[in-house]
Amino acid sequence: PGQADMYAGLQELGVANGEDLKETLTNCTEPLKAIEQFQTENGVLLPSLQYALPFLDLHGTPRLEFHQSVFDELREKLLERVSAIALEGKVEERYKKLEDLLEKSFSLVKMPSIQPVVMCVMKHLPKVPEKKLKLVMADKDLYKACAVEVKRQIWQDNQALFGDEVSPLLKQYILEKENILFSNDISFLQNFFSPSPKTRRQGEVVQKLTQMIGKNVKLYDMVLQFLRTLFLRTRNVHYCTLRAELLMSLHDLEISEICTVDPCHKFTWCLDACIREKFVDNKRARELQGFLDGVKKGQEQVLGDLSMILCDPFAINTLALSTIRHLQDLVGQDTLPRESPDLLLLLRMLSLGQGAWDMIDSQVFKEPKMEAELITRFLPLLMSFVVDDHTFTVDQKLPSEEKGPIPYPSAIPEAFTKFLQENRIACEIGLYYILHITKQRNKNAFLRLLPALVETFSDLAFSDIFLHLLTGNLTLLSDEFALEEFCTSLFDGFFLTACSRKENVHRHVLRLLLHLHHKVAPAKLESLQKALEPTKQSGEAVKELYNQLSEKLELRKPSPAEVTETPSMELPLPTVPTPASR
Question: Which Pfam family, just one, is annotated for this protein (predicted)?
Fold first, then answer.
């Protein structure tokens, strides 16, 4: 800090500072006397000290050191006292004392040694006078130095300033999610959905936002508004995750001031428990249904918020996994989908979640209409695939007659492909069914349904979350990568159809090959390496992954010495002319 800052505000309080001493010394005839007088007037006024100070002089302790230690001690005592005042006596009285103290000390706010005291007083005031807040806001250094409790008071009336503080955190959050989806660690055991909700809420961004909001409903509403706006602008579903995580983080801290006014609180809390279990059980299904059925006339706007909570990929994942489990159970019970209320509720919630963007965009708050064909045609079709698998397994076990083994059904019903292209919910459930069969290492079913993924609703089969999960599950089929037919279906028939137009697909294929290249037949690997070569338009991430893959493949190639190695003993030795015979 500059000299001026060192003494900022002392003059206003009638306390002499360095400038005064300078002036006194400039205009006096006896400097030593003037210094002594200045010390007496401005020193610590304790009679007993007159005898102690010379004693310290004998020990070579500079006066500055002594005064500094007294000052530090007094400041600590004052800080403790301020914190104590904030908790004692009647509310009006304690705040009156703090306001008076602020009035007296505020002129010293720029003085580094006194600043912590002024900041502490402001921190304990629930309402810092407007004028003081404006002065703090106008000074970059003061704004930076003040406590989050004071900043909240500034932010609640300055949305743009609050937005500037929140924006980098939201960017960081999205980046963290994308880094997990594109991580080079591929595994069916650990994936994007593995961390529990409670673990996720401990993340840096959620914790920082929770602290910035405190108990301030106005700031909480502002953050939700930012998330809605960004979700609308980008369609990025990770903002929906953050919306739920933030509410549940405040729930963990029992901040009732906010939880009781957020109409989604109990619904989110119940759904959070389902996400933790990765399954919606019957009891919770009833609870969730109660919340949806309980939306009253005139309060439909809450559906916009509920849909955003349900659009969180972690919620969609839980609902879709539960749907697949229900369908399998129905096969065993000989029951049709339309006869299962639990299944219909899952579809209702999936539908609400998938319709979030349209609802918030159009501001028409009503539940999307469920297409009857989804329930009467598509789901029975999925169930028929489950039956095909059971039948095939049983057939394999029966003693084969002359007619030979029954082949696995290879045709895909046209209706299945059409549903995946035209119906969002059908597509989501269809993709989760394919993830399910891959996880079961069911190669036949996987190869049968894979062609239906080339064209899907809104290219969902090429979305990062699906490809992240698929690549993880494909590690379970790693031995199949040695087979030409499997690789051709997977790479040429699916991945490579989108690589050139979708950079993210290019990245996911390279991630997969980095992990499984040693399983792929060399000839196939070579053609894939050519097909996946980055173009001029490719981003840095693709180039980086491709280089990593090329390095790995280079290490695998046999060295030239090994390639040309032949049994040398059988070859005649070449005749080398000796210098003499030239």
Answer: COBRA1
